[in-house]
Amino acid sequence: MNRKLAMSPALVVGILMVCGVTFAHHGQSVYDENNPIVLRGTVTSFLWANPHCLVNLDVKDDKGSVVHWIAETVNPGKLARAGWTKDSLKPGDDITVTLTPAKNGAHLGHFYKLVFVDGRELAIGEECIHCPGNPNFDSSPKQQ
User: What angle do CA 135, 139, 143 make, to 5 degrees?
Assistant: First the structure.
């Protein structure tokens, strides 16, 4: 019995060490959450996969050049609960996304709002911790 009691703290510490790595994945320090931007572009692909769904889109910059952006969002389970399917976006769809861009200037961001040209909006869901409605998110997007 004493051996089992002695092993319990080691087991708990081991489990906590593994869980810490899992939670570390969800850090958002790479994104500039204080300066969201709005991008209008054309979907080139939509990846419906864990741990995050990705929308690849081509956006014209101020000079008319096409710039490829990657917009990351929550996982497929959360999107499905918000009404999305793997076919919600198709290559060629014209969309507007509001996202928090990468701090290092890469054409990458975490998006929380997506609107089609006809006005239809795909919501992300209440569980998105980096989305409007969450008490920790309170920023106004800038047009780009």
Answer: 150
DSSP 31: B
CA-closest candidate to residue 114, choices 95, 89, 90: 95
Q: Where would I find the H helices in the chain?
A: 2-24, 76-81
144 token code pair: 């780009």
Task: Encode the chain (144 residues) as per-residue pLDDT tens digits.
Answer: 566 655 556 555 555 555 444 444 555 678 888 889 999 999 999 999 999 999 999 999 999 999 999 999 989 998 898 889 999 999 999 999 999 999 999 999 998 889 999 998 887 765 554 554 454 444 455 555
CATH architecture of the domain with residue range 37-143: Beta Barrel (2.40)
Q: Is pTM, for the whole model, over 0.85?
A: no
